[in-house]
Amino acid sequence: MKPNTWRTILGVILVVLGAVSMAQIMGVFPEGSMFMTSIIALAFLGGGAAFLAVFLGNRANWWALIPGVILADLGLLIGFSEFVPGFDVISGAFFMAGLSLAFWLVYIFAPQNWWAIIPGGVLLTLAAIILLSDITDSDGFFVPAVLFLGMAATFAALALLRGHDAPVRWAWIPAGVLGVMGAMMALSATSLVGYVWPAALVLGGLYLIIRPTLRKQ
Length: 217
Prior knowledge:
By secondary structure, the protein is mainly alpha-helical. It is 74% helix and 0% strand. It has eight helices and no strands.
């Protein structure tokens, strides 16, 4: 791909959007019409394709994945909201998942950018929360449980995927703390939190009882 090709594509898209906006102001197209929505969706998809073409032309341009996927995500969001019945229910989760995908692709194709795991995991967690909130009547503790567990999984993924070249063992600390908090919230959501303390006492007592036997073995 030639260096200026993506600029040309974006330039054409901007010209088209400007012309369509002018036509709308002049009353040629009614505001909110299906035609207008289609043009806007295609413009965002075209912009996303331009940035993705920059990346495909040279894998060193990993940065182009972020605007490319985000613009494509917006284009699909606009198009699906217009043409897919009932899509509005999951539109928020769809958009956040698309943002998450942009950062996960950055890490997949350029693993040295390990920082992308954090926004990728956080945005994916938010997508799950939005989806669950939109399609279920969840308990008050359920949403924070998903939030904490999702954040814990994000830091655990950071510790696991970082590899042995430059490990980030510190990530296990927030992963553990957030995991415990998420588990407590999940238990609260299922009305089982009242059993945690008695169960802990029983397990602690059993450990003290059998500990001498374990030492002899």
